[in-house]
Amino acid sequence: MTIPAALPETAPTPSITPPGDSLRILNAVTRGGGVSFFVDGQAVQAFEGESVAAALYASGRRALRSSPRADLPRGVFCMMGSCQECLVWAGAKKLPSCQLPVTAGLVVETLPFRELKHA
Length: 119
Description:
Distance between the termini: 71 Å
CATH architecture: Roll
Shape: globular
Strand order of the largest sheet: 2-1-7-5-6
Low-confidence stretches: none
Number of strands: 7
Number of helices: 2
């Protein structure tokens, strides 16, 4: 195998982000307006359209339930709805909070809160 001494002139130049610069694409994504929704009876501030899981994580809430065997805290894991670790009740449906968009006034209950409420 022969290794060329230099890249061919048609090869793309790799783009390198200088250290400390943001990797976000600025001004390419718009965010919904600020809204309040309710989790276990308490108001949470969020941006309309972001997932309930992201809003809860941003507000500092990490645990949404406890594991059934070891009673360890469980919360957001995959952020794509596969793992079911972030299940919450919204109305009469149990849904992954990472797939549930925030809307103004949305009422959400965590599994332990709902169990205590209906015990």
